[in-house]
Amino acid sequence: MSTDINDRADVEKRLWHEIKHSRTVMLGAHTHPLQHFQPMTAFHEPETGQVWFFTRSDTDLARSIAEGKPAMMVVQTKDFQACVGGELTLQHDAARIEKYWNPMVAAWYPQGKADPALTLLCLDVSDAQVWISDAGPVKVAWEVAKANATGATPDLGASRRIDLN
Predict the structure, then answer these.
(1) Which residue of 40, 69, 104, 146 sits 20 to 30 Å from the alpha carbon of 21, by its own alpha carbon?
(2) Would you kindly state where each structural domain of the chain is located, as residue ranges?
(3) Residue 162 host element (H or E)
(4) What are the distances in angstroms from CA 5 to CA 43, 130, 138?
(5) What span, in angstroms and rounded, lies between the C-alpha atoms of 114 and 62?
(6) Dmax of the chain from CA atoms?
(7) How much is the pTM?
(8) Mean pLDDT over each residue of the chain, to the nearest integer
(9) Which superfamily, per CATH, for 8-163?
(10) Span 62-86, pLDDT tens digits
(11) Number of Cβ atoms within 10 Å of the Cβ of 58
């Protein structure tokens, strides 16, 4: 997927596309003490600027952000990386549980949608730093060889910061 790094709307469109298709992201909240990022399945809503995650209310992450905390989400695919910032809140939204419920989610909640520990995290996104590489294996090899021969750095793509609200 070609993306014009100089076109903010194109970069944002690519970000939402990658979240949708990769589905697994790394999520972490700015809490004290800082916790490690953890893999989560993302349910994206570009129209609201939100990303939703199923979790249990008894997890360290859920307990640490009951009142909302700044958070980061990392998206990484073969030629795309992004660090997305926003505010993470704990919400029990029955409509979204129904909307996003699927067999994969159900496997984590033996009591189903009525599981008392079932809840959601909502990331209201605010900004992102995005890195996009247009380099396949041949270009990577060429750029590395060229950099080693000339003392320059490899040209493998570009980065851009975008505001999302």
Answers:
(1) 69
(2) 8-163
(3) strand 157-163
(4) 25, 9, 22
(5) 18
(6) 63
(7) 0.85
(8) 89
(9) Electron Transport, Fmn-binding Protein; Chain A (2.30.110.10)
(10) 888 867 889 999 999 988 999 999 9
(11) 10
CB 143 within 8 A of CB 88: no
In what helix (H) or strand (E) does residue 105 lie, and over which residues does it extend?
helix 103-106
- At 30, list the tokens: 């700015």
Q: Give the β-pairing of 43-45 and 24-29.
A: unpaired
CA distance linking residue 7 with residue 137, whole number of Å: 26
- Lookup: tokens for 51: 């990303």
CA distances to 23, 33, 38, 62, 121 from 28, in Å: 16, 12, 6, 11, 11
Pair 88, 72: CB distance under 8 Å: no
pLDDT at 152: 81
Write the single-letter amino acid at 66: A
List pLDDT tens digits, range 105-115: 999 999 999 99
